[in-house]
Amino acid sequence: MELTATNDGGSDAESKLDYITVIPLPTAEFSANVTTVNEGESVSFNDLSTNATGWSWTFTGGTPSGSTAQNPTVTYNNAGTYAVELVASNAVGNDTETKTGYITVNEVIIVPVADFTADATSVSEGAQVSFTDLSTNEPTSWSWTFNGGTPASSTAQNPSVVYDNAGTYGVTLLATNSAGGDTEVKTAYITVTSTPSVVELSYSDFEAGWGIWTDGGGDCRRYTKGTYAYGGNDALDIQDNSGVASSFYMTNGEDVQTPGYVQIDVNFFFVAISMDNSNEDFWVQYYDGSTWHTVADFDKGVDFENGTFYEATVTILESAYNFPNNMKIRFMCDASGNRDDVYIDDITITASTSQTSGPIRLLDIQEVGDLLVGNIEEEFTVYPNPAYETLHIASDEVEEVNVMIYNIAGQMVMNITLPAGDDEIDISKLDQGMYVLKIVADDEIFSKKIIKK
């Protein structure tokens, strides 16, 4: 560049070489080492821009999704076709190059890893089992084999199968896709048990006597008057808390070992009279060949109330108790007096070769009867009435009772103590007329009007 300056006195010239520098705009351009890759592979980009001093990349679908490096490397994890954009810049401006659909990422298909589960692996004969495919790596087809099942095979992803026969069976699954297949075999995966064989060992309604049961002692009796019997007229009555004397039990042992039984069920009906509180109860006990075990405890106010019939089932499992060749069952009262009674009726004892219920001690009680009005009148019969010289008192009491006779003016004219059981009173010296007879047993009073002829 040259400048000449002039005036009246003359002129002067100034020359400056390479004084002005012209910076051109950048031109963006790039390439990649590969433009087609598999999922998870990387691509290296090469800047081909001219006159550029800065770079801003955008990688759709890539990791990272952007960069300011001149020659970045990007990983593509997901199948698809992706664009790449480069903005090349310098001090005087920038230029953008966009390559649409530049990178193609192919899906990588991996051989499946087969696996599965079932909603139940231990079932009874005739039960249905539902299988769920848990295979990974996106299988597209499934081939199942069910030993012992119906159907014996399936191509459904999540099939259901019925097993009709007892046994232990394996299940096989082949899971495949375009890359190959994998097989999962679960040996002895499904256990099918036989439909339980339930055998009735005994049934006792006591209408014809004690049957297979033995009277434990003075606080147990056979009741025959109907009111407190669930079926018919007869039941067994236990009272007080005298240990074995307040119980009845199987006379002879039952072999539950040889047949291979694993469960015993004792079903019975009962009604309680005059039980006072939750400290008064009764037990079902089990004899395992050497020891008595209390397997169920029925508490007043918790499991039952007075005057209502209940049905109960007690389950005893071989997994918890020894099953001998001389098993016995015992019912025992644990009350507080001779007026606290439990009447047991219609006892059914069954055994099974398969476990049908649990837990180890199953106490299943349900109310089955209406409320009864329990009173002492059930225990005494007075005859004849009217009477002339002798008054008979028939009683099921096991202890002595106090008998008092009052005239219509309320005066006591006789006070005697009678032994347990039936007895008679000499009333020959009483004047003719109406009297009130009172019998006191424990804390309860029986009253009845009598006529002396």
Please render the helix and strand layout as text.
Elements: E1 2-7, E2 10-15, E3 30-32, E4 36-38, E5 41-47, E6 54-59, E7 62-63, E8 66-67, E9 73-76, E10 80-90, E11 93-106, E12 116-118, E13 122-124, E14 127-133, E15 141-146, E16 149-150, E17 153-154, E18 160-163, E19 167-177, E20 180-193, E21 198-204, E22 213-215, E23 220-223, E24 235-239, E25 247-250, E26 263-273, E27 281-287, E28 292-299, E29 308-317, E30 328-334, E31 341-352, E32 362-371, E33 380-383, E34 390-395, E35 401-407, E36 412-418, E37 423-426, E38 433-441, E39 444-452
CATH topology of the largest domain: Jelly Rolls
Could you give the count of β-strands?
39
The CATH H-level superfamily of the largest domain is Galactose-binding domain-like
Distance between the termini: 166 Å
CATH class of the largest domain: Mainly Beta
Assign a percent range to the helix content: under 10%
Relative strand content: over 45%
Helix-and-strand structural type: mainly beta
| Principal-axes shape call | elongated
Gyration radius, to the nearest Å?
49 Å
Mean pLDDT: 88
Give a description of the structure.
There is one protein chain. The chain is an all-beta fold and 453 residues long. It has four domains: 30-106, Immunoglobulins (Immunoglobulin-like, Sandwich); 116-193, Immunoglobulin-like (Sandwich); 198-371, Jelly Rolls, CATH 2.60.120; 376-452, Immunoglobulin-like (Sandwich), CATH 2.60.40.3080. 0% of the residues lie in helices and 55% in strands. The chain has strands at 2-7, 10-15, 30-32, 36-38, 41-47, 54-59, 62-63, 66-67, 73-76, 80-90, 93-106, 116-118, 122-124, 127-133, 141-146, 149-150, 153-154, 160-163, 167-177, 180-193, 198-204, 213-215, 220-223, 235-239, 247-250, 263-273, 281-287, 292-299, 308-317, 328-334, 341-352, 362-371, 380-383, 390-395, 401-407, 412-418, 423-426, 433-441, 444-452. Strands 21, 23, 24, 26, 29, 31 and 32 form a seven-stranded antiparallel sheet that branches. The relative contact order is 0.09.
